[in-house]
Design goal:
mainly beta; 24 strands
């Protein structure tokens, strides 16, 4: 299902748009046109299927693709692939984040998390620990990262030998703090990958989870609620995007069923604002 959420076009795969809205001077106000750059495999990108993009503190662009992780300095791409001496643990990179000390985390499809260190110019890996699950991720297909606070990061992934989702809280050194919500997620059945994570801006204890449905988890009380979207479609689909667009509204993208609005203060679905399935928000 994650493959259906990746950005893919025939000609322009990776597009960065810098929109310069206005330039002000003492004499006049001048509007500028958007400036568009595009790169594909012909320009050094490792693959024309892009899953995730992130700019780090050094100003370098990191691009996760179906064929490795790329780093772009404005002129050329450097490619990190699986199997190489300083490479990543899996070809397919699903998500990226940068730690407070500048390390780059790359979550992958089947390889857990590869952690890049600038000084050593290589990766170390954090993967599923079959012999001692409490000291490692329960699954190696990593979908997303969410920094909860200064010391904790929420990681979502697929459980080992299952199509259900898993969630773990780790620190900046990728040490497991705890695995969370496993019983509640497992009780909801199969095909329940948690692909989207959003922390509520009004209450930092509230985490919104997007997968097969919308979920609300209160980390302090443990309260866990489900908000099915069957009012709009009976087709089982997955989230392709989840964003908080105001103090009260969540924007929800569904792979096959369009874009919906959810009122998180009233805990109810509002309108469908787009009928076609989308790949990302």
């Amino acid at each position: 299902m994650i493959n259906q959420m990746k950005v893919k076009t025939n000609q322009i795969i990776l597009i960065l748009i810098w929109v310069l809205l206005c330039a002000f001077s003492t004499n006049a106000q001048q509007s500028l046109k958007p400036y568009v750059l595009s790169w594909t495999e012909k320009d050094g990108l490792s693959d024309n299927i892009v899953s995730t993009i992130m700019r780090d503190k050094k100003g370098l662009l990191w691009v996760g693709t179906n064929s490795g992780l790329c780093r772009f300095d404005g002129k050329k791409f450097e490619i990190f692939q699986s199997g190489a001496k300083n490479g990543i643990s899996s070809f397919e990179v699903e998500c990226l984040r940068e730690t407070s000390d500048g390390e780059i985390w790359a979550g992958s499809d089947g390889g857990g998390v590869s952690v890049y260190n600038y000084e050593k110019n290589d990766f170390h890996r954090f993967q599923q620990n079959k012999e001692n699950p409490s000291n490692g991720l329960i699954g190696d297909r990593v979908y997303n990262f969410l920094k909860i606070d200064s010391n904790r990061i929420l990681v979502s992934y697929r459980l080992l030998g299952s199509s259900s989702g898993g969630l773990s809280i780790v620190d900046d050194e990728m040490n497991i703090i705890e695995h969370v919500l496993q019983d509640k997620l497992n009780s909801l059945g199969t095909n329940l990958e948690i692909t989207n994570l959003v922390q509520d801006t009004q209450d930092k204890n509230i985490i919104w989870l997007g997968g097969r449905d919308l979920f609300r988890w209160d980390m302090e009380t443990g309260d866990f609620k489900i908000f099915p979207y069957t009012k709009f479609t009976s087709r089982i689909t997955h989230f392709s995007g989840l964003e908080e667009v105001s103090d009260s509204i969540l924007l929800v993208g569904l792979t096959f069923s369009g874009v919906l609005l959810f009122d998180k203060n009233k805990n109810k679905w509002l309108d469908k604002i787009h009928d076609k399935g989308i790949r990302t928000l």
